[in-house]
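Why this split exists: single-chain examples teach little about how molecules sit against one another. For that reason, every record in the complexes split bundles all components of an assembly together and asks for one structure covering all of them. Below is a record exactly as it appears in the raw files.
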Amino acid sequence: MYRLSKLRFGFPVFLFLALFLDGAVSQVFNVQMFRYPTAMVSHLVVLWLVCGAIFEADNGDFPMPLARWAAVAGAVFDLYYTGIFGIYVFIFPLVIYVTRRLVSWINPNFLSGLLIYFIDITLVEGLGYVASRAVHLNNAAGSAFLVNTLGPTLALNLAMFVILYFPIRWVYNWLK
Amino acid sequence: MQKFSLNRRLVIIIVCVIVSFALMTVSVTIRNKKSTPPLVQQFGNDIVGLVDRVVAIPTNGLSGSVSSVSELLNTYQENQQLKKQVSELAQTKVRDQTLAKENKQLKKEISLNSSLTDYTAVSAAVITRTPSSWQNQVVINKGSSAGVTKNMPVMSGSGLVGRVAEVNKTNSKVELITDNNDTANRFAVSITTKSGKTVNGVLSGYNSTTGQITMDNITTKAKIAKGDKVVTSGLGGVTPKGLYVGQVAKATGSDYGLSTKLYITPATDLSDLNIVTVAVSKQ
């Protein structure tokens, strides 16, 4: 089924669109999002991937190579945005894996999706913090990370999830 | 995935973590030591940069039109203030031209071809910003084909905003001075005090709560006052002399009371960058 659908080409197109929109949104709403010392980080690409895993579980006959595309998106993120290879190329597939495990336990809908996305964003930001701390890219204390980065980022991304969940579901149904 | 035993999964996780750390270490080392990234990475970044422009140019254009509407509202007041400044500026510009000419003649007389103050400005547009809270980094649309090389200073508006951290053929990454990472290359700056003494030093970091740049380990006896101007000194590297960094906001003793610590208010708004200028020095 996957081979024959529009999804095969549509999925990567929207994946890269989300990836580039992350950078564009950070640039355009720079003043609002990076008000020092707090920082809100947009993770639209994670939203697209997690929604893929949620809607994939909704209709079981539609397995997608999500983890592979997540690794590709992570590689582009590392090389183009951060310049440090080896962080998000592992974190994005891990997010897909975790989401698939959670989805197999919890019946996914809008509200439980919100919960799953909460866990995923915490995972992305937490592991990103640990990795950048390990290579001395930042020297923020753990408590400062929780207050200044994780809190605002979760707020922004959960709001994005609420706004974009139904449009993204529509896009997936259209591509199928 | 379901059929893997716990043991096998553990091995996979450990291998992934080790590979991840190895890759990170290698890329950080390359970033610090080499002047350009490996060819494959450069090529990939160039292609991604081209594709990104398809997304970035419409969104940046959209935000430009929105902000121009909001700017229209206080045009009248701004116009009056600017008129005053323009008349002063014309005077300064003419004097600047005369001095530059005189300077050139004098240099010729002592057969000095180029000094630390010479540079050409390459202006570039900001394509995108790294969506990460650990790296204050933007991607600009000029690369090595426009003469940009690693560690060159980048300015916006009236002051210094950062340095080039990675150069590809058609785009490059700029690390802003708000970035506090350990490997960042610090700028050598100097301050001319009211009494005419020159104080040299190195910028040491950025205080994110107050939004000020810090400058540490100054052991001079010269009295540095609030409002003294900080400019790059041109010592040790590709940074030309005389780029404006900011004004001294506060001078205090350091944590141990042995040296002076300065807080500098940056000359430009570091969070709102659209067009930047790379100072390409002639070497």
